[in-house]
Write a structure and sequence with these properties.
The protein is an alpha+beta fold and about 220 residues long. Helix content is about 20%, strand content about 20%. The protein is built from 5 helices and 8 strands. The strands form 2 sheets. A 6-stranded mixed β-sheet has the order 7-6-1-3-2-8, covered by helices on one side. Strands 4-5 form a two-stranded antiparallel ribbon. The radius of gyration is 16 Å and the shape is globular. Has an important function as a repair enzyme for proteins that have been inactivated by oxidation. Catalyzes the reversible oxidation-reduction of methionine sulfoxide in proteins to methionine. Keywords: Oxidoreductase. This is Peptide methionine sulfoxide reductase MsrA. Its EC number is 1.8.4.11.
């Protein structure tokens, strides 16, 4: 999105922008590629996963191209500001990541397979950046929706760290935190499925080239 020259630092709750009680924009009703609703409630049997892996434009496309994913939407998560705007998130004063919400059918694609895609689609060792995108909003994070998701995410991080270390990479900086208490605030309409609307648009997503072990993150229940 853009390069921030100052050293990124997360705000405290007291320093964060307050936001607003209602969003200042309308979220589109349906996904431009998959055709399904963006915002829940979602059909019974589907599950929700939240990931942050840098610029959410390219990250969202990775997931909507995955078989078994019912819908995706981008937003802001993990910070303090209520109903933030994109400009506020980029200011570094919200504490939010640029996140992707993935609604999926676990009978078709498992949470473990989504974790594998997450790890391999970015560099989780870079802290408050992805490539040339610098800022706290670009940090790597997983927001889990159940104890099973949390256990799977922890196991996958441990397994991926081993292969990253063997390949000469640094320590993973990815946050793994409960989604509870960390609301997902949908982003503006023009960010939703951005690379479908702008096929030649910017995509800052790029992995380490190190494969994540398959089958290390089973989820039951």
């Amino acid at each position: 999105m853009f390069l921030n020259s100052r050293t990124p630092q997360l705000p405290t709750p007291e320093q964060a922008l307050r936001g607003r009680p209602v969003p200042g924009f309308t979220v589109p009703s349906r996904h431009t590629v998959l055709g399904n609703p963006l915002v829940g409630p979602y059909p019974e049997g589907l599950e929700v996963a939240d990931f942050a892996l840098g610029c959410f434009w390219g990250a969202e496309r990775k997931f909507w191209q995955t078989e078994g994913v019912w819908t995706t939407l981008v937003g802001y998560q993990g910070g303090y500001t209520e109903n933030p705007t994109y400009e506020e998130a980029c200011s570094g004063l919200t504490g939010h990541t640029e996140a992707v919400r993935v609604v999926f059918d676990p009978a078709v694609v498992t949470y473990g397979e989504l974790l594998k895609l997450f790890w391999e689609s970015h560099n989780p060792t870079q802290g408050f950046r992805q490539g040339n995108d610098v800022g706290t909003q670009y940090r790597s994070a997983i927001y889990t929706h159940s104890p099973a998701q949390a256990a799977a995410a922890d196991a996958s991080r441990e397994a991926y760290q081993k292969v990253l270390t063997a390949a000469g990479h640094k320590e993973i900086t990815t946050e793994i935190l409960p989604a509870e208490g960390r609301p997902f605030w949908p982003a503006e309409a023009y960010h939703q499925q951005y690379l479908d609307k702008n096929p030649d648009g910017y995509c800052g997503i790029g992995g380490t080239g190190v494969s994540c072990p398959i089958g290390v993150a089973p989820v039951e229940g």
